[in-house]
Amino acid sequence: MPEGHKTHRLAHDHTQGFAGQRLRVSSPQGRFDRDAEEVTGSTLRTVEAVGKHLFYAFAGQRIIHVHLGRYGEFRHYPTPPPEPRGAVRMRLVGRTAVLDLHGPTQCRVITPATRRQVEARLGPDPLGGGDREVAWFNLQRSRVAIGAWLLDQSMIAGIGNIFRAEALFELGIDPNRPANQLTRSEFRRLWRVIVRMMKTGFRHGRIITVTAKEAGRPLAKLRDHERLRIYGASTCPRCDGKIETIKLGGRALYLCRRCQPATASDPATRERRPRPNPPEQ
């Protein structure tokens, strides 16, 4: 499933390629026919990403809401458009380019009010300028494992399986540790690492969690097996220990038991925190 860096990159690229144009919108597959009729011929104003959701805002207060899910993908072609290949849920035709959408979890036309409802169910988006204090408040109230918490889009939006494994490894945090046991300083570091990784992914169009210093060469020149530290690996890059996989949050998570040791739940060893109050909106 695409993580937040990918949706933000798509929003940027699609805005650059199609905003300000009257688009022909269709559904070669047929499942999006009625919705396509509502927006075809309208001018696309902008495309925005919130977490893993995409919103194509058209003139006339109509929005195409797309969630790619695990199998969704866009295919890009120059005009004139070729014959649709496979099950194309939605086709957007602009002046010089065509977008075909295949296999999304969600593709529908909504109103601004419905968009607000969708966003209200999401936690802060680190890459989209989300409020870190709201995420901190959410974390303090949660007893679930931090590895599962990071995948809960209602707590924090846009993080997927790779970012969570790589960020927790970088900071040496046991993914089984209850979320509300993280200290404020630990959470601040975690937020900063996630933002850095997502910005790098946005800039390069793919997830890269190692630094250029670690890699010994520019990030743009890294091969696929050099981009990550722990995800999909069998040996820890720090201690040469065995990488384990566990099921957490419904997904397989990679960790190193040596570098991410379990910590005792001892309040005397952690920062004291007052009872959390909701952040001001």
* Largest sheet: number of strands, sense, barrel closure: 4 strands, antiparallel
Instruction: Report the mean per-residue pLDDT as an integer.
Output: 93
> What is the count of helical runs?
8
Q: Give start-end ranges of low-pLDDT stretches.
A: 265-275
Q: How far apart lie the N and C ends?
A: 31 Å
Identify the strand order in the major beta sheet: 1-6-7-5
Q: In what range is the share of β-strand residues?
A: 15-25%
Order of helices and strands: HEHEEEEEEEHHHHHHEE
Shape: globular
Structural class estimated from helices and strands:
alpha+beta
Question: Rounded to an integer, what's the Rg over CA atoms?
Answer: 21 Å
Helix content: 25-40%
Secondary structure tally: strands:
10
Q: How would you sum up this structure, described in words?
A:
The radius of gyration is 21 Å and the shape is globular. It has eight helices and ten strands. The chain has 281 residues and is α+β, with helices and mostly antiparallel strands. The relative contact order is 0.13. It has helices spanning 4-18, 33-39, 112-120, 132-140, 146-149, 161-171, 184-204, 212-215; strands at residues 24-26, 44-50, 53-58, 62-67, 73-78, 88-93, 97-102, 106-110, 244-248, 251-255. The chain starts with a helix and ends in a 26-residue tail after the last strand. The strands form three sheets. It has a four-stranded antiparallel beta sheet. The chain has a four-stranded antiparallel beta sheet with strand order 2-3-4-8, sandwiched between helices. It has a two-stranded antiparallel ribbon with strand order 9-10.
